[in-house]
Structures are given as structure tokens and as C-alpha cells.
Amino acid sequence: MAETHTGPVPCHTERVVGGSTVVEVRGEIDILTATPLSARLDTLTGGPCPDLVLDLRPVTFLDVSGLRLLCRARNRVLARQGRLRLVADSGRLLHVLQAALLGGVFEILPDLHTALSDAPEPDAVSAVAG
């Protein structure tokens, strides 16, 4: 008897708020979950001027596959003259981004309300092109 095994899929929800697509990701973003989530983010960032907010507050673990996913989404958004914001309030997640030298690469905001406002907050980290 053949057994079909599918890897875990990250749990996420999507909604559009004021023209921004908000993706709330929960659980782990690792080698098993990054590929299907990356495919979904590719779809969301495929059009012109994508406006994407990734709410990472419910993320409990992020490995190098997750970092690659974030960088890919960022690069796709910038290539299409869009905007990507990360919502993160976990010291652990922020430390991972800093340790990977990616803290200054993303626009990181502490809450969803701030991320959905039109103007970046003064102490927000702005995305750096290139």
C-alpha cells in the first residue's frame, strides 16, 4: 500500500486592508514549510507595485530557509516597484534578522496598525535597494 506524505504547510491567513495584502504567518518557517509559502508569496508579488505586509508576530521559529523566503519576497517586491513591510515584535526574530545582517534590509514595524499607515514611522528600518 502506497503512503502519500506531504510536508507541513505553514499556517497563514491573507486579507486585503486598504490596498495592502496582509499575510499573517503562524508557526514555523523552516525547510519544510518555506517552499509552499514562498510559492504563495510569489503569486502575491507577481503583479506591478505589490503592497505586501508580512505579519510575523505569530512565527515561533525561522531558519535560513525562512530568511531566504523573506529575501526573495523583498527582491520581487522591489523589482516591481512595490513595498514590503514586516511586522515583528519578537526579540528573538529581530535578533535572527540582525545576526544574518538583514535587519537594515527590511522595513520592520512593531504592529499592524503602524505597518498599514501610509507614511513609514521615523524609527522604522527602511528597505535598502540593491
Automatic annotation (TrEMBL):
Q: Where are the transmembrane segments?
A: none
Q: Which CDD domains match?
A: STAS_anti-anti-sigma_factors
One of its Pfam families is STAS
PROSITE patterns tied to this protein = STAS (PS50801)
Q: Which domain of life is it from?
A: Bacteria
- Occurrences of domain STAS (ranges): 19-119
**Coiled coil ranges:** none
Sorted alphabetically, which NCBIfam families does this protein's record hold? Answer: ant_ant_sig
The UniProt family comment states: Belongs to the anti-sigma-factor antagonist family.
Name under which the protein is recorded: Anti-sigma factor antagonist
Species annotation: Streptomyces coacervatus
